[in-house]
């Protein structure tokens, strides 16, 4: 069971986990042991509330397919159990990041004083540069 909040939880039946061989170098053991984990989570078939599903499907994340299936491959650790925990934690973080509502940005304008200070500093800088020029005798 994956706990997302007090009200929202995912059952074990909603997450499909399979063990595969890890990629990359690793010696003889990497060719024998399936320690990497493929996690698949179908957003449409899940028991998530509609708000969660809608926000997840709107995400532009490469881990979410066109069909609405989240695919996570975890192969960072040497053991299957640690990779399984890592994949589940990454799924949990993905779902929680999707439901965060961004604060609406209100455009602001610079104050009159800050505009005056900015122009004054530019004028002073220009004068300092002008004084570096050639001196006419």
UniProtKB/TrEMBL annotation:
* Superkingdom of source: Bacteria
**What keywords appear on the UniProt entry?**
Hydrolase
- Domain Prokaryotic-type class I peptide chain release factors residue range list: 21-37
- Please name the GO terms that the record assigns under molecular function: hydrolase activity
Say yes or no: keyword Hydrolase present: yes
Gene3D superfamilies annotated for this entry? Answer: 3.30.160.20
Question: Is Hydrolase there in the keyword field?
Answer: yes
- Please give the residue ranges the record annotates as the region Disordered: 105-137
Taken from the record, one Pfam family name reads RF-1
Q: Name the protein family.
A: Belongs to the prokaryotic/mitochondrial release factor family.
The name this protein goes by in its record: Alternative ribosome rescue aminoacyl-tRNA hydrolase ArfB
Gene coding for it? arfB
């Amino acid at each position: 069971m994956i706990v997302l909040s007090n009200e929202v939880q995912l059952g074990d039946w909603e997450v499909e986990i399979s063990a595969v061989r890890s990629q990359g170098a690793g010696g003889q053991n990497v060719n024998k042991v399936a320690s990497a984990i493929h996690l698949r989570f179908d957003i449409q078939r899940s028991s998530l509330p509609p708000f969660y599903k809608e926000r997840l499907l709107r995400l532009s994340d490469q881990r979410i397919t066109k069909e609405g299936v989240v695919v996570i491959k975890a192969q960072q650790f040497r053991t299957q159990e640690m990779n399984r925990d890592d994949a589940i934690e990454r799924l949990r973080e993905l779902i929680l990041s999707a439901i965060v509502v961004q604060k609406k940005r209100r455009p602001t304008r610079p104050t009159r004083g800050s505009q005056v200070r900015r122009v004054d500093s530019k004028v002073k800088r220009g004068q300092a540069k002008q004084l570096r020029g050639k001196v006419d005798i």
